[in-house]
Amino acid sequence: MEESTENPTDPVDNGNHVETGSSSSRSTVEIDKYGFTGGSQYTNPEFEEISVIKIRQREVKWLTMLDNWDLWMAKKFQKVKRRCRKGIPSSLRGRAWQLLSGSNLLQKQQVGKYMELLQSQAGTNTVEDIEKDLHRQFPFHEMFAQRGGTGQQDLYNILYAYAVYNPKDGYCQAHAPIAAVLLMHMPAEEAFWCMVAMFDFYIPGYFSPGLEVVQVDGSVMQGLLRAVCPIIHKHMEKHNVSPMLYCTEWFMCIFSRTLPWPSVLRL
Question: I need a surface site. Which of 144, 161, 171, 251 has the fewest CB within 10 A?
Answer without folding.
Answer: 251
